[in-house]
Specification:
By secondary structure, the chain is an alpha+beta fold. It has 5 helices and 7 strands.
């Protein structure tokens, strides 16, 4: 049984939503959000699978440091002055632990960011994922001020905006 990451296709969106329902029941997002991210930046949309069954997904796109997009909202367009690769969501089913999928998609994010000329990865961590991102080398972002604090509060309690330099 081969486990692999591959490019996400529009036909994968039902599987992506199925994984999201399991991994993020407290942070639901509409199918249209994932469809728009896929249309705007297909290179940043990946699906992990084994024997044709979805195990997880990664959705990332150019963004602005300290300015995460609202939860469950369309972007409209990618920011013209993007200065980071924003990891919108990386979600893996619980039984995938130990398969190396998280490290593999994070390596892909670093490669994608480097190809795009970005010096930073950024993400908004849920409380349950925070220890993973800490171990992966992400650090809380010090900038952003009240606007970032308000955006994080709109996501829910315990959210953290985090960044990491892109590996060269």
């Amino acid at each position: 049984m081969v486990v692999r990451w591959r490019a996400m296709a529009e036909t994968d969106l039902d599987a992506v939503l199925g994984v999201a329902d399991v991994v993020h029941p407290d942070y639901p997002e509409d199918r249209a959000v994932f469809a728009e991210r896929l249309a705007l930046f297909p290179a940043g949309c990946r699906l992990a699978e084994r024997d044709g069954t979805a195990l997880g997904y990664g959705v990332m796109h150019p963004g602005r440091l300290g300015v995460p997009p609202p939860l469950d909202a369309p972007l409209g367009e990618l920011p013209a002055a993007a200065d980071c690769l924003y990891l919108h969501d990386i979600a893996l089913l619980p039984d995938t632990r130990g398969l190396g999928l998280g490290a593999a998609v994070l390596d892909y994010a670093h490669e994608l960011a480097a190809r795009g000329g970005f010096a930073w990865l950024a993400l908004t961590s849920t409380p349950g994922a925070r220890s993973y991102w800490d171990r992966a080398g992400f650090m809380p972002y010090d900038g952003g001020g009240p606007a970032l604090a308000a955006k994080l509060a709109s996501y829910g309690d315990g959210m953290a905006y985090m960044t990491m330099p892109v590996r060269g």
